[in-house]
Amino acid sequence: MEYPSQLIEEAVNEISKLPGIGKKTALRLVLHLLKQPNEETRSLAQALVKMRDEIKFCKVCHNISDQEICRICTSPRRDNTVVCVIEDTRDVMAIENTGQYLGLYHVLGGVISPIEGIGPDNLNINSLLHRINASDSTIKELILALNPTMEGDTTSFFITKKISRPGLKITSLARGVPVGGELEYADEITLGRSIMARTHYQPN
Predict the structure, then answer these.
(1) What is the pLDDT of residues 76-87, one digit of tens each?
(2) Band of the pLDDT at 170, cuts 50, 70, 90?
(3) At a CB cut-off of 8 Å and minimum separation 6, what does 18 contact?
(4) Both 14 and 115 in a single domain?
(5) Residues 6+ apart with CB under 8 A from 55
(6) How far is residue 73 from each of residues 58, 68, 130, measured CA to CA in Å?
(7) Statement to judge: residues 163 and 85 lie in one domain
(8) How many Cβ atoms from other residues are within 10 Å of residue 201's Cβ?
(9) Domain around 72
């Protein structure tokens, strides 16, 4: 593709690195930005730079946060006896949108996948086990809400084998979420029902 400007080509190349955006879509976005007032383009650029420089990860649950500890972990309205284990922040957002869950979260940052070179030490599993096994822990129930894939099931199984606290209730989402699917793409009704109808976790 021929570009009328080297600057446009560079912008297109950078934007097309985003997931789901090809060169043609990136070019449309670049040309759209050129038509906007300079202030709007600068505001977009500044917001992106500020997000990247100032974003934090909660020291407790590892969710994306503006503060050292996220608003969910600090909220007095949340049930601190229940922790929902999920893969990433997108899953937190998906569950929060159902309005059916008022407990806390723990973001693993991925799942165990030997093929991709991701092991337990690459994930936030040790901090989860510390939250669970600590002598002053208030956690009574652990919800394993990982995607119903082989990697998700492997990660859930690994976590349960590392838990040393007797009496802890371990549940998983009801399989209203389709096997092989991802929480991010589940509709809110299905996801909400899966949360409400969660079952005891049974390792294969």
Answers:
(1) 999 999 999 999
(2) very high
(3) 26
(4) no
(5) 64, 65, 66
(6) 8, 10, 16
(7) yes
(8) 17
(9) 64-200
Does pLDDT of 184 surpass 80?
no
State both tokens at 187: 């509709």
Q: What stretches of the chain show up as alpha helix (H) in DSSP?
A: 6-15, 23-35, 38-54, 71-74, 89-96, 125-133, 150-162, 188-196
H or E stretch at 187: none
d(CA 40, CA 46): 10
CB 83 within 8 A of CB 104: yes
pLDDT tens digits along 107-137: 999 999 999 999 999 999 999 999 998 878 8
Banded model confidence at residue 49, pLDDT cuts 50, 70, 90: very high
pLDDT in the model for residue 2: 81
Note whether residue 43 is domain-resident: yes
- Number of Cβ atoms within 10 Å of the Cβ of 156: 23
Q: What is the CATH number of the domain that holds 165?
A: 3.40.1360.10
Distance CA 142, CA 58 (A): 19
For residue 175, give the nearest of 157, 193, 152 by alpha carbon: 193
* Pair 88, 185 in one domain: yes
pLDDT at 104: 97
